[in-house]
């Protein structure tokens, strides 16, 4: 089944579906649907501009050298004044277009048409010089006017739309120049036009084939990139899930353990760990039921998260316990944070079975300084939490370095 890339109203089309649809499409059209065409030029625009500017620099150099070479080796007794006007004027015009038209701030169409203008200037200049020739024009004059056009189509990578315009304009100018020289017989004029068409037509067909192939190569690369990006997003989502507590949506113990290890390895002594326990949670469960207990955990987690900074880590430690890792906090900051959390939960109100309910928390605080390992930091915070419980709950207690549980209880 082919995809059109269409999505629900108001949503941007999916580029992967558009790319797959374009790869399955046959026909003459080269342009992609609008969204895909914009992505195409966004991706290749800078590279294409560099390519265009390189083409113009080398092209104008080659055009000038080819013109001099032809006049020295092929054309007998060249009119060097006309040669100077043709080559000098054309090269000057091309360099002006290069400076003003082929710049990154200009639109894509402007840049591509600027390249077309450079090619037309060089190719038609060789034809227009014939109109000003005082001596009778010959078949040789017109035959020598064709190579610049062929040179442009072979060596300048015009897009197909510009190649078609180049083809038509050159034929038209060539025909008009032939008409302007009555010494050229009609039969010879038809031959010259036919010869020019025969010489340029393969390049026109080749331009279409080349652009179609390059666009299809881009689509394959874009699909690979989009699939890789989608896979990275999925992997990131799976990683987030593996670090997230399914019930409360905060970080889980695994994420906390990694963060504690990172903190232990970091230089400096700043940082603190808070262990938070919901007071009398078993009694709450017995009174309201386990579903209400789950809801209570979610309310408390949301309340705690709302009162923390973006760089603080809130994790579910297990059961009704939460952990808060303050990676940059000093003692005063950590104590203020613990008091703020305790006060916020104390004033938290939620509804269970149509009845208002509330809980309190006890908080144990341990500073990173003096705790050499994550296990030691957790142990110190746990001792402080036990002391807060022993002191009557709804309290904050700070772990003293080197104190055990019995010393904390008697403090």
Quick rundown:
The chain has 411 residues and is of the alpha+beta class. The protein is 64% helix and 9% strand. The chain contains 14 helices and seven strands.
Instruction: List the domain count as a whole number.
Output: 2
Q: Average pLDDT value?
A: 88
Distance between the termini: 74 Å
Helix content estimate: 55-70%
Order of helices and strands: HHHHHHHHHEHHEEHEEEHEH
- Which residue ranges are poorly predicted, with pLDDT under 50 across at least 5 consecutive positions? 407-411
How many strands?
A: 7
Order of adjacent strands in the largest pleated sheet? 2-3-1-6-7
Give Rg in angstroms. Answer: 39 Å
Using the alpha-carbon principal axes, give the shape. Answer: rod-shaped
Provide the β-strand percentage band: 5-15%
The biggest beta sheet reads:
5 strands, mixed
Q: What's the total helix number?
A: 14
Secondary-structure class: alpha+beta
Pfam families: GGDEF
Keywords: Membrane, Transmembrane, Transmembrane helix
InterPro entries: Diguanylate_Cyclase, GGDEF_dom, Nucleotide_cyclase, Rev_trsase/Diguanyl_cyclase
GO molecular function, one term: diguanylate cyclase activity
